[in-house]
């Protein structure tokens, strides 16, 4: 990527296999996947498909162009049609996923960390209940 201003942009060449390119997409101007972004994103990498065997394309990556055709302002259907007619050798220009641009969990933090404050509250409540029970039992 000589002259690229964004270091997270990569070119990936895939050879279409018996099952196609081996990944699913979401997004488009008619089906926004990311808030305020009508781009096309990789939603699933299929096992043993061309993309999985290559290993560079990942779920959450944004596809910027297919064989030099820029996907900006494309509908989902137009992009699917472009993939279908792109031939056996397909070159993708991809913006690697960035956790701050994705909807939902991104794997940047383990899920159990978000429950830690609740465990502390639960422990405090159990302790308070035990104290109340102890005091109640002593009065009898």
The dominant shape is elongated
Number of helices: 3
Number of domains: 2
What is the beta-strand fraction?
15-25%
Order of secondary-structure elements? EEEHEEHEH
What is the alpha-carbon Rg in Å? 24 Å
- The CATH topology name of the largest domain reads Pdz3 Domain
Query: Which architecture of the largest domain does the CATH hierarchy give at level 2?
Result: Roll
* SS class: alpha+beta
Helix content: 25-40%
What is the CATH C level class of the largest domain, in words? Mainly Beta
Number of strands: 6
Main beta sheet, described?
6 strands, antiparallel
Molecular structure report:
- The protein has 140 residues and is of the alpha+beta class.
- The protein has three helices and six strands; from the N terminus they run βββαββαβα.
- β4 and β5 form a beta hairpin.
- It is elongated and about 85 Å long.
């Amino acid at each position: 990527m000589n002259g690229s201003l964004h270091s997270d942009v990569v070119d990936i060449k895939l050879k279409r296999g018996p099952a196609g390119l081996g990944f699913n997409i979401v997004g488009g101007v008619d089906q926004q996947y990311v808030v305020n972004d009508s781009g096309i994103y990789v939603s699933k990498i299929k096992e043993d498909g061309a993309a999985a065997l290559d290993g560079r394309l990942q779920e959450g990556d944004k596809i910027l162009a297919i064989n030099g055709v820029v996907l900006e302002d494309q509908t989902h259907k137009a992009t699917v049609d472009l993939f279908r007619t792109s031939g056996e050798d397909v070159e993708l220009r991809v913006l690697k996923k960035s956790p701050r641009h994705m909807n939902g969990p991104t794997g940047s933090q383990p899920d159990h960390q978000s429950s830690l404050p609740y465990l502390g509250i639960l422990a405090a409540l159990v302790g308070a209940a035990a104290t109340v029970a102890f005091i109640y039992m002593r009065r009898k």
